[in-house]
Automatic annotation (TrEMBL), chains A, B:
Family the entry assigns: Belongs to the AOR/FOR family.
UniProt-listed InterPro entries: Ald_Fedxn_OxRdtase_dom2 (IPR013984), Ald_Fedxn_OxRdtase_dom3 (IPR013985), Ald_Fedxn_OxRdtase_N (IPR013983), Ald_Fedxn_OxRdtase_N_sf (IPR036503), OxRdtase_Ald_Fedxn_C (IPR001203), Tungsten_al_ferr_oxy-like_C (IPR036021), W-dependent_AOR (IPR051919)
Protein name as catalogued: Aldehyde:ferredoxin oxidoreductase
Residue intervals of the Aldehyde ferredoxin oxidoreductase N-terminal domain: 1-205
Classification lineage: Bacteria, Bacillati, Bacillota, Clostridia, Neomoorellales
Names of the cofactor(s): [4Fe-4S] cluster; tungstopterin
Molecular function via GO: 4 iron, 4 sulfur cluster binding; electron transfer activity; metal ion binding; oxidoreductase activity, acting on the aldehyde or oxo group of donors, iron-sulfur protein as acceptor
Species in which this protein is naturally found: Thermanaeromonas toyohensis ToBE
Source organism, top-level taxon: Bacteria
Keywords: 4Fe-4S, Iron, Iron-sulfur, Metal-binding, Oxidoreductase
Signal peptide positions on this chain: none
C-alpha cells in the first residue's frame, strides 16, 4: 500500500507530506514500528533530538467500524531502551484517518513549547506557554473552549513535560475527556522532550469517508459487528468493564498483591467487577457501567465512576489500575483507586508503572500496604514535583535503584502488568520475549481456556497471542475484539478487502503480526537488548502463594522462543 | 608478549592459570581493555553475571621503579555504559606482579559474599559475612589483624556492596590505609554485583623480582629516576601535593564553583595547596605534606591531613576532592572536606562523582552552597542508606534525573572532573571524545603551556595527551611522571627493553596509546555509545564567569577528532 505521511519538523517548524510504499496493508503499530526502525538509529538516546514520535491510525479507522480506530504512538522508549508502541482509544484515530494521514512523524525538538494543530491542508504551531504545568483535564477544557469540542486532542500532562519516564500520551474520548492513554513505555516523556504539549485534530467537522457507503464494506461491517454482538465475553465486558478480569485473575492466584508478594487479595471482592458495577448502580448520578471509548464501538467496556454525590470521579476505571493500584498496594477502597486514576490521567502517567512504583516504595518502607493515605500523599507529591512524587513518576525500576530495593516487578525496565507471570505463565513468556517488554497488551493469554499454572503449551500460546495481537495493533483494532473475532480472521480480512479492493486471505493476519514483531525484534537487537529477558530475581526465588506457583519454564525453551517466527508473504 | 592470567570463576569457586599472547608489551589499561573487549559482549548489562572485573598491573611493576606500580581495574561501567578503566596507586600492583600475574579476571557471581585470597599457588574463597556493611577502614583493620600487615588489600565499601553507581575500588597504601581509589566509573559497584567484598594479596613476604638485579635495568632506572628528581613540577608536587593545581585552575577561571556556575572561587585561598601545606605544617602530629602512595615513588604527592589535635583525618587529600567537594559546593573549610574524603573512602565512593552529585542536590535546593553541614548531613545519610544518601551515591546524572535538575555536570553519565571544559578547552575535548567519558585522567591538558581559553590547537593537544596517557596507563605508570618523563619516551622504553630484552623504539608509546584507545573506541561503538559526546546543555548556554568563557569548539572539529588515530606497529 501507499501510506500518506505527515512529517512535522519541530526544530524548523515546518512540515511536508510524503507518500511511502509499504509491503503490508496496515497502519498502527506496523507503521510506527516500521518508521521508527527506518528513521531512528537503534542507539539513539530516547530524549535526544534524533528520537521521533510516530502517531498512526489503522487502515480501518474513520469508517464507522466498531473498535477499529485506535491510535498507535511509537517511539524509542526511555523505560525499555527499545522500540515501543502503545495505543489508545479515543477519537484521534478517526480524526487522523479523516484528515487523510496514515501517520504523523514528529521529529527534532521545538525551541519552545508548542501545541500543534493538524488541519486538512496545514499544520499550525501555536505557543503552549499558557498550558504549561496544567493537568490534562484543565488543558483539554481550555483547548476545547478555545477551539470547540469538535477537536480531538492528544496531550501530555505535567509529568510528560518533566520527562518522567512513566508518562503516557493522553487522547480525548468522545466526551472530550483526556483519559484514553497510550500509557506504557514512557512515550509521553518523549513527547515532552520534543516540547509538544498537545496536538489538535479536527474531528467532528470532517465528513466520514466515502468508503463507508460502499456496499461491500457495509456487508463486511455487518458480519463483523454481528460477531461482536453475539459474543458472551463481550456482553460481560459491556456490563462489568475490564474490571471483570480481577475476579478471574484473583481466582487463578495471579493477582499482584502487595508488590507481587501474593497472588490472591483477601479483599478482592471489594474492588472486582461486581463491586464496581454495584457502586456505579447504587450511586447513579454521572455513573455509567458501560460506555464507548471510540465513536464506533459495540464493546463499550468503558465506564464512568461516580462519587457518593453522583459527580464523576474518573472515566474509565480499568482492571490494570485496580490490580496495580488496588491489590498491589493492598488497597480495597474503590474511591481512592478511582481518584488516583484521575490524578494520574491528569498528570499524564501510566497507572501500571506508577502503581508498581508505589508498591516498590511500600517495599522500601516509604508507604504502607493497605493504607491508602500513605500512597495518596506520594501521588499528590507528583503535582508538587516533590522527590518521592518524582520517583513514583519515574517508574518501578528507577524507584528500585533509588531506594535500593531489588524486589522490583519489572522486565526490560518496565513494570509488569497485573498478571503475575508465575500464575499466568503464557503471559509471563510474553513479558520475557515481547519486544515491548512487560506489557500485557503485547500478548495476554489469561482468557485462553488452558491451565495457566502449568508450563505445558504456554510457549505456543504466548507465541500465537503475540502474533495476533501485533496484527490487531497494526490494524488499529481493539484487542478486546479477539474474544469475538479471534476465531474468524476472514471477517477481519474482509473489512480490509472491502475497503481497499484487495483479496487478502485470512492467514494475512499472521503474516502481518509476524512482520511487525520481526521489525521490532531486529530493532531491539540492534539497540543491544537481549532477545529474551529474565524474570526479576525475586520471582525466580519466591513461590507465589496461595498456590505456591514457581516459575518453571526452562531457559532452553525461552531461548528458542522465536525460532518459528516466519516473516514473508505477498504484497497486498 | 605472553601474559599470565589468573581466571577466577566466582560462580563455581574455581580458578585456573592461562597464558595469552599479546601484540603489545603492556599491562594495565591495555590488558583490562583488551580482556573486557574480548570477553564481555558490548551489550552486557554492567551488573549481570556476564560482566567481568579485570585487575591488571603494568609490566614494570614489582621492580622498584618509581611510580610504575599502579593497579588498573577494568570493567563495563554502570555509569557510562561503556568500557572503563580506573587505576590506583597502593601496593596491589606490586603484589600482583610479584605473584607472577599480569592480570586477574573475576567472572560470574559468587553465590554468597566472599573475600578472595590470591596466593602464589592458590586462590582461597573465604566467607565475607562478618565484613559486610563495614567501611573500608574497619575492614582493612580486621583483615590486617587476621592476616598480618603484609597483605595488600583490594576492597569495596558499603557503597559497593549496595551497588551504588559512584562506588570505587579501594587499594591499601604502604601504611595499610584503604585510601588509594580506582574511583571512577562505578567499578566498585560491579565488584559488589559479583559479591566480592575484598581481595588479599601477599605483599611484603614476596621477594622482589630477579630482574631488579640486572645491570641494564639498574642503569635504565637510574636515568629514569634522575629525570624525576630534577623535575621542577615534581618538586612542587612533593611540597604541596596535587592541591597545588587548585590555584592554577582557579586563576584560569576553570575551577568548578557552586555546581559549575563560576570558574573562580572567592575563597580558593582557603583550600589551595598553600593553605593545605600550612595547615599540615602548623598542626603537625600525624600530618605529612608529602608521602608515597606506592612503595617505589620519588614523586610523593600524597599527604596526611591532621586534625587540630594532631590525629589523622584523612590521607591523602587531593585536588579533585578539593575542587568537587570544596569550590563546587562553595565550601572553604579544609577540615570538612578532609573529613568527607575520609567518609567517602570508608564508604568506597568516588569523591568526584559524589561531589558533583552534591552540587546537583544543592542546585535542587536539598543543600545550600557554602554550608558544610547541609552537605555533611547527606553524606552521613549514605551510611544509613537514606534516600538522599543513596542518590548522592548513585552519582550526578542519576541525581539529576531523580530531582528533575538538568543542570548536571556530566558527560556519558559520569561527572565532570574539576576542570570546567569552558575554561580548559583541551580537557573539555577529552571529556567529549575519550572512551572513558568525563575523566580528566584520560587526557588532562591543563599543565600544557598553552592558552586554555582559546580553541586553537586544543584538538591536537587533547589528542596527543589522550594517547600518551593511555600508554602510561597501559604501563602501570603514574601520569604525574609525565611532567618529568613526557619529553623522554626513550627513558620509558629503555625500562621495558631492559626488563624484557626488547628493542622498542621511543615511538612505541604512541603506538601503544593508540592501540588502547582504538580497542576502547571499538567496544563503545559496539555498545552503542556515540564516538563524540555533547556537553550538558547548560554549559553550551551559559558563559563561564569571570572570564565569560563559552564553549566554542565547532561540532565539525569534534566529529573528526579521532580521524588521525593510527593503530598498528610491530610486535614487541
Amino acid at each position: 500500500m501507499k501510506a500518506k505521511i505527515l512529517r512535522v519538523n519541530l526544530t524548523k517548524k515546518c512540515w511536508q507530506e510524503e507518500k511511502i510504499s509499504l509491503s503490508k496493508m496496515a497502519g498502527g503499530r506496523y507503521l510506527t514500528s516500521y518508521l521508527i526502525s527506518r528513521e531512528v538509529p537503534p542507539h539513539t538516546r530516547p530524549f535526544s533530538e534524533q528520537n521521533k514520535i510516530i502517531l498512526a491510525c489503522g487502515p480501518l479507522a474513520g469508517q464507522g467500524i466498531s473498535s477499529a480506530s485506535r491510535l498507535s504512538v511509537g517511539s524509542k522508549s526511555p523505560l525499555t531502551g527499545g522500540i515501543k508502541e502503545a495505543n489508545a482509544g479515543g477519537t484521534a484515530g478517526d480524526a487522523l484517518a479523516r484528515l487523510g494521514w496514515n501517520a504523523v512523524i514528529l521529529e527534532g525538538r521545538s525551541p519552545e513549547w508548542v501545541i500543534l494543530v493538524l488541519e486538512e491542508q496545514e499544520v499550525k504551531f501555536l505557543p503552549a506557554e499558557r498550558y504549561l504545568g496544567l493537568g490534562n483535564y484543565k488543558t483539554a477544557e481550555l483547548l476545547h473552549q478555545e477551539w470547540g469540542k469538535d477537536y480531538s486532542l492528544i496531550l501530555i500532562g505535567p509529568a510528560g513535560e518533566k520527562k518522567l519516564w512513566a508518562s503516557g500520551v493522553a487522547v480525548t474520548d468522545p466526551c472530550g475527556r483526556p483519559s484514553r492513554m497510550a500509557a506504557r513505555g514512557g512515550l509521553g516523556a518523549v513527547m515532552g522532550s520534543k516540547r509538544v504539549k498537545g496536538i489538535l485534530l479536527p474531528y467532528g467537522q470532517v465528513s466520514p469517508s466515502l468508503r463507508e457507503k460502499r456496499w461491500s464494506l457495509i456487508e463486511a461491517k455487518k458480519e463483523f459487528h454481528h460477531l461482536i454482538l453475539k459474543s458472551e465475553r463481550i456482553k460481560i465486558l459491556a456490563k462489568y468493564g475490564t474490571a471483570e478480569t480481577l475476579g478471574l485473575v484473583n481466582t487463578l492466584g495471579a493477582l499482584p498483591t502487595r508488590n507481587f508478594r501474593q497472588g490472591q487479595f483477601e479483599l478482592a471482592h471489594l474492588i472486582n467487577g461486581e463491586a464496581l458495577f454495584n457502586l456505579i448502580k447504587e450511586r447513579q448520578g454521572a455513573g455509567k457501567h458501560t460506555e464507548k471509548c471510540m465513536a464506533a464501538c459495540l464493546i463499550r467496556c468503558s465506564n464512568v465512576v461516580p462519587a457518593p454525590d453522583g459527580t464523576e470521579i474518573v472515566a474509565p476505571l480499568e482492571y490494570e489500575t485496580l490490580g496495580l493500584m488496588g491489590a498491589n498496594l493492598g488497597v480495597s477502597d474503590l474511591d481512592s483507586i478511582a481518584r488516583w486514576n484521575y490524578y494520574l490521567n491528569d498528570l499524564g502517567l501510566d497507572t501500571i508503572e506508577v502503581g508498581a512504583a508505589l508498591g516498590v516504595m511500600a517495599e522500601a518502607g516509604l508507604a504502607t500496604f493497605g493504607q491508602p493515605l500513605s500512597f495518596e500523599k506520594i501521588i499528590l507529591e507528583i503535582y508538587k514535583d516533590g522527590l518521592l512524587g518524582r520517583l513514583a513518576g519515574m517508574g518501578a525500576s528507577f524507584c528500585g535503584l533509588a531506594l535500593g530495593t531489588e524486589r522490583v516487578p519489572a522486565i526490560k525496565g518496565q513494570a509488569i502488568s497485573a498478571y503475575d507471570p508465575r500464575g499466568v505463565k503464557g503471559t509471563g513468556l510474553t513479558y520475557l520475549t515481547s519486544p515491548m517488554g512487560a506489557d500485557h497488551t503485547a500478548g495476554l493469554t489469561v482468557f485462553a481456556p488452558v491451565d495457566h499454572h502449568t508450563k505445558e503449551g504456554q510457549k505456543e500460546l504466548s507465541f500465537r497471542t503475540q502474533i495476533i495481537r501485533a496484527a490487531y495493533d497494526a490494524l488499529g483494532l481493539c484487542v478486546f475484539l479477539l474474544s469475538a473475532t479471534g476465531q474468524h480472521p476472514d471477517k477481519v480480512v474482509n473489512l480490509l478487502n472491502a475497503c481497499y479492493d484487495l483479496e487478502l486471505k485470512p492467514h494475512y493476519l499472521e503474516e502481518l503480526g509476524a512482520e511487525v514483531i520481526s521489525i521490532e525484534k531486529a530493532y531491539n537487537t540492534a539497540a543491544g537488548l537481549p532477545e529474551v529477558e529474565e524474570l526479576p530475581e525475586f520471582m525466580k526465588e519466591e513461590p507465589l502463594d496461595p498456590y505456591h506457583l514457581s516459575w518453571d519454564i526452562p531457559p532452553e525453551e525461552l531461548a528458542c522462543f522465536w525460532e518459528n517466527l516466519k516473516v514473508g508473504g505477498r504484497k497486498p
